[in-house]
Amino acid sequence: MSIPLSVQFVLLSLALAASGCSEEEGSASIPKAANAVPTLEQLPKCERIAARLTPLLDGLALVDQDDGGRYDNVTVYGISCSWLSREMQSGDISQQVKGGGLSIAISIDETPSDEQMLRKLGMVHDDARAEDIGGFVVDVSKRMEPSAQLGIIGPQVVVGRVTVTATAAGIALQKVESMEYITNDQAIEAAIAIHRMLR
């Protein structure tokens, strides 16, 4: 017996939401200017993001979502992509309950995040790589260890109005054994790579 894929995705989405926080022909062009903000249509598809982040996402299965994971709310729009761990892909329910997934989101807000305010709150993690692209890293937990496994509260790389966030969690909010190789530092590197894709 196995957990249906639709149920797996619902469980994974609930877990990741608890944090609060090859290019196809015909796709829209990406703005080249460093300060350009992509439109909703110009955001890269999840498949393109996965191709850019190989081998980090090797072995993980992309979840098929309505509208390709794109969303457009009143004050923010973006795309959210999720991948299931090896355990979740198993036909064995005893393995599936140990599984989870990884989520990467690109969000564009009406106004940029206030770095100075976040720094005063102790939520900015200094990272030269982010500074090189004109951004900074937000650590909502205020105690992120770069070498630790990526968890449900992941780092956010902010450049102007664009934020890229990476999170990972099991369906019971636990850390997933098969994804222990994905660290906070690798998540920051991945987020920076995505920011570069948008230029």
Automatic annotation (TrEMBL):
Residues 1-17 form the signal peptide. It comes from the Bacteria. Keywords: Signal. The keyword Signal applies. This is Lytic murein transglycosylase. It comes from Stutzerimonas kunmingensis. The lineage of its organism: Bacteria, Pseudomonadati, Pseudomonadota, Gammaproteobacteria, Pseudomonadales.
